[in-house]
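Figure 2 data, in text form.
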Amino acid sequence: MKNKVALIAISFTLLTGLSCKKSSQSSSLVAKPHAKGEIGKVVMLINDETYVHCKDAIKEVYQKPIEGMAAYEPYFRINHCNEGGFTNYFKYNYNLCIVYDQEKSNKLTSLVGSKLTDLLDEKLTNGQSFFVVKDLFATPQEVAFIMGQNKDSLVVNMLKNKDKILDLALQTERKTTVELVLRDKVEDDAFYNQMLKNYGYAFRTPGNFKRSVKSADFNGVNRIIGEKRSGLYLYEEPYTGEEQFTKDYIITKRNNMLRNHLHGPDRKDSIPTYVTTDTVNVEIYSKEITLNGFRAIETRGWWEMANEFFAGPFVSYTIYCPTINKVVTIEGNVFAPSKKKQDLIRTLELASTSFTVKQ
């Protein structure tokens, strides 16, 4: 995904007292706290009255439905607070959004200081309505400022910048993948190192995932917690041409590979059960992206178990690897009946961004 957001770093001298300060007994700077957060969550500082007025716009920006789901699940959950509730939990969150209503600037000034709010006023005067500050209170952190002269202009500015705002939140989340998703050190990641050695490519294994499939042409890991099951798999083919990146080709190839390798329980009548793609009930979404520097097609939809009553969301990445002249596919799928699937599918997405090819 192209970076649509220009990150503007604010120097220590500009924001003296916000997140770093000189020690009275030492010339060294006090280190900023380490940012924390959760998958699929944005925290927001916003005045109560402003929040009520902007609630629908906020939902349209951050709670856009995840494509390929059978039921509505948003990209992000929102945890908001007013100026009086701006505790360290919010301040040190890596995915923090601050909504600046110029008519109520005195309330924000009491929290962040007049130098920053003066800067926001200047940017509003110059016609800027979305602004990003790097490592403002903690690190790593990219704080999104959405600005408006009043509540009505805030709604307009949120919707005008909605793609940039959502992209920033997704990019920020990806930068924390190692901490949130990949628990093992590289040297302890057995699946990653085996795949890199034997096939020349791999993704890092998400926390608590174990090797589940091992064959010449299909390999993967999964995690089972009660009824919730998540799997992440790899398969490849030689690069032959651009038709390999069309939606029809990707789905046909996917169905063939999963029919051979992902099966359901044995039936007494011996009718085969296998994973395939639901092409009737849930729309299949496909788009070109950049995955850790590689050209890829992201495909989202709903898998189902042929001849059985199992189903769930999937996301796959069809990746062009020119140095090895191959097309590699990462297949991720989730089974979690009657449960929210947002965090499960996002975990697979984040792990997929670690894909690499051996140099």
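Caption note: Confidence is low (pLDDT under 50) at residues 1-28.
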